[in-house]
Amino acid sequence: EDGSQLWLRFPVKNGVSADKIIVKGNSPTLNIAKKELMNHWQGQEIELRTDKSLQNLKGGYTIKSVQNKLVISAEKEIGLLYGVYHILRLQQTKSAVTNLNITEKPSYDVRILNHWDNLDGTIERGYAGHSLWKWEDLPKTISPRYEEYARANASIGINAAVLNNVNASPNMLRKDYLEKVKVLADIFRPYGIKVYLSVNFSSPKVLGGLENSDPLNKDVQRWWKDKASEIYKLIPDFGGFLVKANSEGQPGPQDYGRTHADGANMMADVLKPYGGIVMWRAFVYSPSKEDRAKQAYLEFVPLDGKFRDNVIIQIKNGPVDFQPREAFNPLFGALKKTSEMVEFQITQEYLGFSNHLVYLAPLFKETLDSDTYSNGKGSTIAKITDGTLRPAKISAISAVSNIGKDKNWTGHHFAQANWYAFGRLAWNHGVTSEQIADEWIKMTFTDNEKFINPVKEMMLTSRETAVDYMMPLGLHHIFASGHHYGPEPWGDYKGGRPDWSPVYYHQANAQGIGFDRTKSGSNAVSDYFPPLNEIYGNIKTCPENLLLWFHHVPWDYQMKDGKTLWEELSYKYDTGVKNVREYQKIWDKMQPYVDEERFQNVQSKLKIQAKDAVWWKDACLLYFQTFSKMPIPYDIERPVHELEDLKKIKLNMGHHN
Ligand code: BDP
């Protein structure tokens, strides 16, 4: 049991016979649907029907029990395939497959994975081995995993993939690479997955030999136009570009005194005739005096309304960077005339890599359910991005993938749940974290209640647990620089960028701890719509889980439960550690219900997580204690490390910031 089957553990090769499947035509997509049914469906007769009148379901489908058969209908064939995966899921999770009357319409048009894969096979922030894409073997040699990948995505409704890193190599657009991309696109197509590419803004200069890459330069425009036509000749349904520009040293329109809108529109214009889109990232910040959490807002709000209608601004869930917990990004809702999409991170850059068990659906939901108040109460991020509150020509949702070439795809067996959860939420953001966990456990492990309930409980609390042992109460970015694995709250890189130093984020001193983002500080609170600006800005009303995100708080400040801030912080770290120990106990008890291979693998990962949790707790409490000068509450576990020893730990995990 190596985990390579993911959640697709349907009974093998004993489905219905061909005569039990009624379907007209035999396109590649329909053939996949038929094959899945013949291999795995054990229920009644099935009819697959394309029905043009269902176009309002946008790629969705209906499943209805009609007399003795099930009828799956959809406008497009891909909807039929999704319907097939739906009934297979029902069968696998032992849910009823009779008397069905289901209508499914996806929350988002584009449900996309962002792979941060480099052309040399490495992956930026990838923790499950090298890239799945074997660029050197393509286009001739085709790994069977390409199709398995497409099938897994289709089974949860993911319909798009950006194949390469946002820190994009210009070579991605070279003819020989495009020919490799074409091969992948051809494999993915029957599974309804469109291919997109990250592009380097300097491509015209670096690849095309032009004088510059100024978006207003006619030669540059022509270069992109020709490139688009070259791409679409190979891949007629190519999805479009993802662009990281003028961010962390990447080139962009500002290099020529132009704006993000100038850059994005130039690309949007060349893609427009083919129906392509531009996902332009708002992850921008420079080493300026301005609070990093405010910078994207400052740059993008003045550009609202200046983007073409096939540009979507891709915004990370928080304004800093995929932290265990952030306040939501105030750009959501602030752009009134521009399409916005969320970028989540499935790969656990800031959540213990593939060593820690952290189920991310609660984090995703926390963002999507956040009320921005942009159009009054109820203006959740889900509604802003899915087109309910903004007339979005195209709606989209993205996440940075955690997939690599490890046998089990994601390094940690439980990290598969995060890929699964993203797909399910992209399809329907109304599904609960619990429902998703429940399904995933049944599909991936067993339907034995004795396993499901404790494991589900562990998954559902795991994100909060990670917040507790890493960065409770709104603390953020106190990671060791470069690799972002362990703690380094003392990190202070004099001479470097201040916003790449942990001390910039926690601001601990003799008085207290936390980043003052109120009016007396950076005033980032003013980026939020009323009443949130007031709620966050007032220490009394600010939610305690974001307290140190918005306020610099005295060590002896009294928290709602009567404890001092210092005590609260200490207990939070302690709770984090205790919970991981609890997970170890839970998991050990699960041994009878799970195969030995996956059991042991998860067991050893939990040991690492437990050690890391103690490391985090000791590092943060011992270091912050040098400012608070208060005792660690006597009823919690004593530190087992010396601060000075912890400071000497240097992990060799590579990377820049
Ligand atoms: C940060 C990563 C960095 C990425 C950057 C981005 O540390 O490797 O390149 O985000 O999203 O989270 O562009």
Short précis:
The protein has 19 helices and 15 strands. It has 657 residues and is α/β, with parallel strands linked by helices. The protein folds into 4 domains: 18-104, Chitobiase/beta-hexosaminidase domain 2-like (Chitobiase, domain 2); 110-431, TIM Barrel; 445-513 and 552-657, Alpha-glucuronidase, C-terminal domain (Alpha-d-glucuronidase, C-terminal Domain, Alpha-Beta Complex); 516-550, no CATH class.
Describe what this molecule looks like in 3D.
The protein is α/β, with parallel strands linked by helices. It folds into 4 domains: 18-104, Chitobiase/beta-hexosaminidase domain 2-like (Chitobiase, domain 2, 2-Layer Sandwich); 110-431, Glycosidases (TIM Barrel); 445-513 and 552-657, Alpha-d-glucuronidase, C-terminal Domain, CATH 3.90.1330; 516-550, no CATH class. Helix content is 36%, strand content 11%. The protein is built from 19 helices and 15 strands. The protein has helices spanning 28-40, 77-92, 145-156, 175-188, 203-206, 218-234, 260-271, 292-300, 361-368, 381-385, 416-427, 433-444, 449-470, 502-506, 532-537, 547-550, 565-589, 596-628, 643-648; strands spanning 21-23, 45-50, 61-66, 69-74, 101-104, 110-114, 160-162, 194-198, 240-243, 277-281, 311-316, 339-345, 396-400, 512-513, 553-554. The strands form 3 sheets. Strands 6-7-8-9-10-11-12-13 form an 8-stranded parallel β-barrel. The protein has a 5-stranded mixed sheet with strand order 1-2-4-3-5. Helix 1 links the parallel strand 1 (21-23) and strand 2. Helix 1 (28-40) runs parallel beside helix 2, helix 6 (218-234) packs across helix 7 and helix 17 runs antiparallel to helix 18. The longest helix is centred in the last third of the chain and has 33 residues, at 596-628. It is globular and about 75 Å long. The two termini are 37 Å apart. 54% of the residues are buried. The site of beta-D-glucopyranuronic acid has 10 residues, from loops.
